[in-house]
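AAA-ATPase-like domain-containing protein (Tepiditoga spiralis), 595 aa
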Amino acid sequence: MKKRLPIGRSDFKSLIEDNMYFVDKSLLIKEVIESGDVLLITRPRRFGKTLSQSMMKYFFDITQNNEHLFKALKIYKEKNIIEKHLNKHPVIYITFKDLKSNNLKKMHDLLISELSTLYIDHKYVLDVLDEEEKSVYKSITSKKANDSEYENSIRNLSKYMERYYGKKVIILIDEYDTPIQQAYLHGYYDEIISLIGNLFGMALKDNVYLEKAVLTGITRVSKESIFTGVNNLKVSTVLNELFNDKYGLTKEEVEETLKYYDLEYEESEVIDWYNGYNFGGVEIYNPFSIINLVDEKKIGPYWMNTSGNYLIRKLIKEGTVNIKDSIEKLLNGEKVESKINETMVYGDLHINSNESIWTLFLFSGYLKWIKETKEGYRRYTLAIPNKEVRMFYEDTVLLMLEEENIQLDNILINLINGHIEEFKEDFQKLTMNTLSYFDVSGEEPERFYHGLILGMSVGLKEKYIIKSNRETWLGRADVILIPKDKTDKGIIIEFKKFYKNEKTLLNSAQNGLKQINEKKYEEEIKNYGINDIIKVSIAFDKKEVEIVSNLDKDTELTEMEKVAKGMLEKKLDINMISELTGIPIEKLKNMYNHL
């Protein structure tokens, strides 16, 4: 009988004692022992951080005898480590993963509740405290202490435990940045950062009672805001080699897991869906998705269906033109380049700092890094890691459109059918109703138009090849829609921002149509064997819009086309007209349909 899968389990002891399937990452303990005094390990959610912290707690904790948990694991072969460290250290373990609240008061209450529980768990140290220390200790257990006493609580507990056991303490803090991200999302970042910063600063800076500390989280929050004065901090992110194979699953571990459960999948399919991560140069698969693949016995977007996407969705929705343009490129399989700041500054997200946004996307698992493009400058080439994450981006864009009831298919039907006046009316209503949704700041109306392009890239991908800001024959078109059904019409859309020297918005729109013709944007569509092409120029000035098109009567007919039009009006034979003028029959038919 096969071992049960550890779905929903993050407690190492129960997992081992219940004989559940466990990918042996126990040598992490050896690497932690041999690394710095204070370690910060950042990885995406559900990549094994909590389970690893739990494993270390059961390994080091002096109050327990857990030799049976480790006998079958790789770490047990390290006899020197087993002899010196297995259940030989006082351990302070605290998790912040459940500290989630939309207001400061509740977050404060949740935090002091965790600290109170921590003190209750170690109340045996009361035996070595003096009366004054006992008084403060009891005020924390009863949740009646003041903030300065809470801020000193972890440091003081390490002092008491060192006094009790005569040994320095190991501190394990899981998901340390959860309350910080929550505070940023709900508008009380500045207030909570002081309390959290002081709590960690007191526990980690110059703490003579500390043997080692290991913190895990998704991001490395800036030293200035939370790790002030912690000079002995050693950081492991997805960019460096430290612990690079200890979180997530390696290719060999995935193959071993699938083989154990007698699952045969095309390797390329599993790679496409769940691989793509680069942790310090090691190829890593998403462990949560692999486990669920084995359980459900089918490919699916398991990681993306869990919680934790809200901030990423918010940043895409409210992103600048550059962010939306880059997201569109990523969705088209291209790469983007950005400086990655390993020290996360949440405050910069508020001002749409591209650097901070791409850093968050990378550290959270929504991007992978391919290479460092400028060594020493922290500039990296970034891409979407796999199909599962790509689906998240696509769903996010579609959700943005659905929330504002933007039906791209409906808008384009009128255009494709030649009903240009109806298209203009629908598009102008769209801009009036939805511009504020995309243009959060009120300062960049282009966000709406780039958001619309992004929506096209996702919403119309079944029917069209969508290209935007691509090099065409002589220039760049904003949007080119190439129909997959060659009987449909190709579409070129050029967005023009109004400038005063153009005098009127109509002039601006006409200049856009002229640019489409002069730059020969249609050549890219013609290369696909499609000659029936609709050209649209959309000029905008904030919420005002003017649209001109080659569907407008006589907008852009050449002299020969005007001659052909006269022949068509006289109902002459279309084949003869084509021979005389050199105009393709399909185009003549289109001209005839619009008479």
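The two ends are 75 Å apart (CA to CA). The chain has five domains: 12-236, 249-305, 310-392, 404-549, 559-593. ok done for today
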